Amino acid sequence: MSPTPQERRAARHQAGPDKPAVRRGPSGGRKKPITVDAIVSTAFAIIEAEGYEALTMRRLAVALETGPSSLYAHVVNKEDLDELLIGRLCAEIELPEPDPSRWREQLVGVCTRLRDQYLRYPGISRAALAAAPSNLDTLRVSEGLLAIVLAGGVEPQVAAWAVDSLTLYVNAHTLEVSVANSRLRRADDGWVVSRDDMLRRFAALPETFPHTRRYAAQLTAGTTADRFHFTINLMIDGLPRTGQAT
Amino acid sequence: MSPTPQERRAARHQAGPDKPAVRRGPSGGRKKPITVDAIVSTAFAIIEAEGYEALTMRRLAVALETGPSSLYAHVVNKEDLDELLIGRLCAEIELPEPDPSRWREQLVGVCTRLRDQYLRYPGISRAALAAAPSNLDTLRVSEGLLAIVLAGGVEPQVAAWAVDSLTLYVNAHTLEVSVANSRLRRADDGWVVSRDDMLRRFAALPETFPHTRRYAAQLTAGTTADRFHFTINLMIDGLPRTGQAT
DNA sequence: TACGGGAGTAGAACGGTGTTCGTTTCTGCT
DNA sequence: AGCAGAAACGAACACCGTTCTACTCCCGTA
């Protein structure tokens, strides 16, 4: 029996490398045979150019010069494709060797790399949030983060939960940024865009919003990167450490 | 000129109460006239019973015993409906009078109420994440949170960003829980369900995952509520305070 | 009192989505 | 050479959000 996409998907959550899948079928006539790798690559190209919203099975099929049904020989469904995407995305994250004296910056570094990868492919966080946490590639990143936090002298239980919280926040942050960017891109309505608009809007609020009016400057201050690092450091600084590291 | 849905939507981001919209048209023959309020109410009923994924314009129209097009006289589009939903959801959140001596528990309390509201309507966080932050009802909750944090003696700039981080985390957390629940509900594949399954799976990991294997117990420990309070407290405890409050 | 305009309702349809069915086409092996 | 079987594909299904257009009924005005 041949490896159906279903079996391949199940295997992706287990151990063991997947065999290179010998080529068969009428692919010799094609310029480029349809493989899972080719599907994922062109999917990434579409997302990078037009955003995750533009990634449909039909659009993907057109890019591969075939019909939509041809994809389902390699991919179970779109949810499976999403999983493949975030899998490859996580696979490209390089993890440092944990250094107890530099665990904070190492942690921030990995989170930042993760964020950059997510932002490079706008909207893909949506797929990441829906993905199962048992994927081997995502698990690899979690393992790396866990190693760093543990090296920092954080109690295992706290470290385990903290890693989850951090990754969840990175996902949510990138999703919010992507959504905001896409809303900004299609400036359909007279929507809020610039910081001045935001400030003026806050200032025009009724007196039921005293603090929002008073601190409008602070509420609208900072770039998304500033807010990202603020929150990441907020969570890291809150970690109680039993160990010796700085 | 009459208030079209577009105007009503724009007004929702400004000040001033909306007029009760006198009834006209052939609605006298209907048992229940179609109003924005009725639409939102039945939408919530659908979400509560079948989840946000089941909320479609057609499904909503059927529940209201009408056609899909009839809804568009009261709602601009589905995005607008989403905004109305999270608006009402936030409107039902009661905010305490800030008490500097109890600001931590007040903060946790509001976040927990917010979480409970989100979880009551599974998947609605997806709409909340996409919603514009300038909605008056969501702004009201932010104002309340900001007041509490400021009362706790936190520097305005830190408080402003912290409120954003907290609300974003609540959204992300509830979305993750909802997704996990729905995946658990439709146990299609041999998917991970129980904690024992998770433990066994982690134990079966290759030696490339030493920490994940070693601390599988910690990684799978705790309920979602435990993890929620852990992260919320993590962020709150990280807040540097200049003031005098506890 | 008669009437016309307009708001509310609704059916049908358009373009799009993910997915499946049945068939065709080609390959590697016997 | 012939065949089993895998890959590719065109057409179709069910569903989505949304729009077009016609219709119905109320109300203010003449």
From TrEMBL, chains A, B:
GO molecular function, one term: transcription cis-regulatory region binding
Keyword set includes Plastid: no
Keyword Transcription (UniProt): yes
Keywords: DNA-binding, Transcription, Transcription regulation
Residue ranges of coiled coil: none
GO biological process: negative regulation of DNA-templated transcription
Transmembrane segments: none
Organism superkingdom: Bacteria
Sequence segments annotated as region (Disordered): 1-31
Database matches in InterPro entries: Homeodomain-like_sf, HTH-type_TetR-like_transc_reg, HTH_TetR, Repressor_TetR_C, Tet_transcr_reg_TetR-rel_C_sf
Residue ranges of every copy of the HTH tetR-type domain listed in the record: 33-93
One Pfam family from the record: TetR_C_1
DNA bind region: 56-75
Protein name in UniProt: Transcriptional regulator
Protein source organism: Actinoplanes cyaneus
